[in-house]
Amino acid sequence: MASDIPEPLTVGSLVAFSAAPGHSQPDFYEGAPITLVPGVGEPLIGRVLAHTSEEVAVAIADTRLTLTPVAATLDENGSLDYKGAWTVRSVTPLA
Asked: What's CA 39's distance to the chain center, in Å?
């Protein structure tokens, strides 16, 4: 794991998405800034690398975090609701 990522943020850690500074809500388009709020530690600002209906990949410093929803729920439009807890499925260095 990269030294820039706080130690508590490992595979299995729970996080929530929050808006990046200057934004009113989280955005999930490729390259969008986003804040991850871990259960332990300070919020981390990263950028979205990719997302599907089953996972979101976020870059923080020189690390790629792949996140999956703890309980996938749909919003009123039938799309994945990104609110709630997500778990870190993998932590890998960015290539």
From this structure: 12
Distances (CA, A) of 91 to 46, 66, 75, 83: 14, 7, 28, 21
Q: Is 86 exposed, middle or buried (0-12, 13-18, 19+ CB in 10 A)?
A: buried
Report which DSSP code applies to 81: P
At 69 the three-state DSSP class reads strand
pTM check: above 0.85: no
Q: Select from 78, 82, 79 the least CA-distant residue to 68.
A: 82
pLDDT tens digits for range 56-74: 999 998 999 999 988 877 7
